[in-house]
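User: Can you write out an input/output pair for a complex, sequences first and structure second?

Assistant: Here is one pair. Inputs:
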Amino acid sequence: QKEVEQNSGPLSVPEGAIASLNCTYSDRGSQSFFWYRQYSGKSPELIMSIYSNGDKEDGRFTAQLNKASQYVSLLIRDSQPSDSATYLCAVKWNGGATNKLIFGTGTLLAVQP
Amino acid sequence: EAQVTQNPRYLITVTGKKLTVTCSQNMNHEYMSWYRQDPGLGLRQIYYSMNVEVTDKGDVPEGYKVSRKEKRNFPLILESPSPNQTSLYFCASSLTERGISTNEKLFFGSGTQLSVL
């Protein structure tokens, strides 16, 4: 069973703080990792992808990958109330005839003004 | 505007009455997929299509059908809906990268909230 696990939250942070969202996965052979943001009542949208160990920065967002420990995280610097949403971790499992993309259940982030 | 268009946005129906949820994308994507999202279970894949006339089952295909006769359209069909199919449904498509149909960077439609009574 290939799994992607996230703490459901809510994770509450004050405006301007760093929000840290974590995700662990079970398949050691996974190669591609994604973070999607989903506002309440809306559809998910891709915000970050990461393929190699280490950090990848894009504006206020930093994705971190540690394949040895099988976790991927998303840091949001200078958190804003507009960042309040559910963040979905997705992991691409490379195996079999197709490469499956498996989603975690998401972490709800609440940024307090 | 590049987008994935799903219709209808909301649908209430009764058990056993066949229905179709339409999905269309204007980005010339080869890969398309249907997901359902339920509280505590996250996004689960129903069916996917790597290209025209190529479809395959995802993790929860029972009770659903799909077809891919044209690249842009990927309708989801519930032949005999049941209450356990009450859910939020998303259609998604993905970029073709280096000539390869891939599911890596998904663009989602706005969703269809289905209630089966």
